Amino acid sequence: MMVLRQNVLPKFCFFWFFLPYFLLSYKNTPGIKMNKSKIILIFLIPLLLVCIYMILPYFINLSFQEKSKVIFSPPIEGSKLAKITFINRENKEFMFSDFSGKILLVNFWATWCLPCRVEMPSLDRLQSDIGDEEFQVIIVAVERTSFDKIDNFVNSINVKYLESFHDPKTISGFLLKAKGLPTTLLLDRNGNEIGRVEGPLEWDSQSVKNTITKLKNVDD
């Protein structure tokens, strides 16, 4: 929430400070009528939008905390997991087969996705707590943007332990038949999908850790 305030409030205050000057000049433009109700609306609409943007994370957090118990949906028929490719910061291309031998938790997300922002720190904590040579959490940004923007986003929420990848062609969602973002897949050591979670989750909950630990023991 602090990150949202740091990112939004300075821009909003700047806009709010100069808005009266803009309205005065606009009001004095020949041929343009600017009555009191229009001026009030111009002031209130941006304020309402910013308030919604600031408050929404609290409501997402409430539902997010209630979903601490992990329930993976079964793999979707027709998903083309083996065809998905993504790149790292150095523009090197990867496939899930490159992680063969590891249990993977793969989070598909985007910088514009507010639920993604809310859940990502818990993914980071999960990697920090139980990530090892047998299990890894990776994140794949699905959007047409630069890696710099992705890095800036990840750094802004203090994520330290997640390996970050990018799908600039934005085709992974189509190949996975994902319903939206975030979508998180659990893959076995051979790169096969065990299950998925669509929507945010508290990924460092004990329920998730127990699930991963059981998978490690079964695969050993």
Q: Judging from the principal axes of the Cα atoms, what is the shape?
A: globular
Strand order of the largest sheet: 5-4-3-6-7
Can you tell me the CATH topology of the largest domain?
Glutaredoxin
Beta-strand content estimate = 15-25%
Query: Average pLDDT, to the nearest integer?
Result: 80
The count of helical stretches stands at 6
As an assembly, this protein is single chain
The CATH C-level class name of the largest domain:
Alpha Beta
Total domain units: 2
Low-confidence stretches: 1-12
The CATH superfamily title of the largest domain: Glutaredoxin
Biggest sheet architecture: 5 strands, mixed
Q: In which range does the helix fraction lie?
A: 40-55%
Rounded to the nearest angstrom, the distance between the terminal CA atoms is 41 Å
Radius of gyration: 22 Å
Alpha-beta classification? alpha/beta
Overall strand count:
7
Query: Which series of helices and strands comes N to C?
Result: HHEEEHEHEHEEH
CATH architecture of the largest domain: 3-Layer(aba) Sandwich
TL;DR?
This protein has six helices and seven strands. The protein is α/β, with parallel strands linked by helices and 220 residues long. Helix 1 packs antiparallel against helix 2 and helix 2 runs parallel beside helix 3.
Element layout with pairings:
Elements: H1 2-27, H2 36-66, E1 86-87, E2 93-94, E3 103-109, H3 114-130, E4 135-142, H4 147-156, E5 163-167, H5 172-176, E6 183-187, E7 193-198, H6 206-219
Parallel strand pairs: 3-4, 4-5
Antiparallel strand pairs: 1-2, 3-6, 6-7
Helix pairs in contact: 1-2, 2-3
